[in-house]
Amino acid sequence: MEMRHLHALLKQRHSLGQLEPKGGKLAFVTVPRENLRGLLTELRDVHGFTHLVLLTAVDWMEDGLFQLTYMLNNRGRDMTLGIRVMLDRQEAQGDSIHDLWPTAATYQRELKEMFGIDFPGSPRIDEEFILEGWTDLPPYRRDFDSLAYSQQTYAERPGRVTHDPREYMKSKLYPDGV
Amino acid sequence: MFNFKPDRTQYPAADADGKLEIDLETGKYLKLWQGPNHPGITGNMSVELTVCGDEVVEGKTHVGYLHRGFEKLMERRTFIQVFPIVCRVCVPEPDFNEYCYAAAVEDLAGIEVPEYATWMRTLILEMGRFNSYMMFLGGIGGALGLGITGQWMTYVRDLMLDRFEELTGARIYHMFILPGGVRGHLPEGFEARMEEVLSTAERYLDDIDKVMFSNSVFKTRTKGVGVIDPKLFEPYGVTGPNARAGGVAKDLRKDSPYLVYDQLDFEVATATDSDIFARATVRRGDVQTSIDLIRQILRKMPKDGPAMARIPNVLHWKIPRGETYIKGECSRGEYGYYLVTDGTGYPRRINVRGPSYTHAMALLEHLIPGTNISDVAALMVSLHTYPPEIER
Fold this sequence. Notes:
Chain A is about 30% helix and about 20% strand. Chain A is α+β, with helices and mostly antiparallel strands. Chain B is of the alpha+beta class.
């Protein structure tokens, strides 16, 4: 079954958005949060998308949204589907799928720490994952300024010369001007 | 054959959620930290073991010792400035990061890579895979007390690093595969010098077969130990040699061919027992496949041609809004880059999918209970995990 046929089959049942194909083997589609679980379960159990490749987030701060991306793969048919769920940035909470793929718990734990997106019921969700004693904004949010943080937190090493990367590259790569 | 049978009567009771009721005050259980500084740990992570006698009843993995914030850092860099960062995500096999990032940028920017560059990329990736397996074969021997294998494999890896240095100018972080192609051509006489390295490697690998794979201590300690039930492969995201050792021939070079793998003749190594020994034999088979592939690539690749496509002025390079996922088969399984662009000169989001993320966390925690303390190191090494790709 091609990606387009699969989309046509599932579109109404799970309120899928437009299919965005990227070649024949990869496509992206958006689904409402309330339909996510049903869609993932059907894709896994009926359509052979048994491999959860990754789960991550994108911060669309200017739109007030977090995008969760669930990447699923059907190995037999060599098809990968990226499923997007948009969350309100102010109420950043997703639905745990650790019961569908146990390994999802690790991704969800990281998303809680790095983006502040909660997944109630996910194992060890509140335990520190990578950061230790972190009290600032979740650092992968766009409004966390890593440069300001490092300037406030760490002292400048004496004797170090810092170039502005853009100007330095310009002088090295395009000495005659661009 | 020796089979370790854990005494389940020693196990702590579990509550309704499956959480073990461990009271350290009873003196029956002990916490034992394996890592972060421990010869039996593959890099910068630790495993918090709860033991009862010499049997492990629970294991929790801890990472964060090597977090460098690469994914955040890359959002503040132009597309070309990201290029020297990506290889540093994974020390032992850095080239996959370069390939996946370059291919993702090319996909979203609509750049077609010259044929010569696709052959060179395949060559580089197989050389990197070979090196990664050298570290594995040395490491698995080391985890079980065979110190000599680590020395031999380090020597052979060093010979391949000489070829890397000759080809790319660098030994570890090559920064050779960049968006648009590769940085150069094969030096004069490279094929002959590579053949010397491969022949030497084969001689040492014959010795490894005798000293390690035919060694009764090695066999006793690895056969029937650390078995992964193939039913766990999908729920736990098991890919690559760890799956192939359990009879599932997962290999993206075959399942979803990229670069020039569809023009190369090779079979992927598999086994059936899914234990530590099977995982080691699959990797031993994969090394030979890589050696054969390197010879084949050097024989079949075009002798000349452009190595780079034209790319835009890198200081003003903006990529239209979009997202893509590029994957490849590294020595440990599926490696992938998820790239999101927003029409500006900077990536909106880059997420690195390394196989260790699933193998060294959820899977390892699932496999540890019931093992003997002395087997934890071999179990972990047998999964071939590299912590840097977990925390990036």
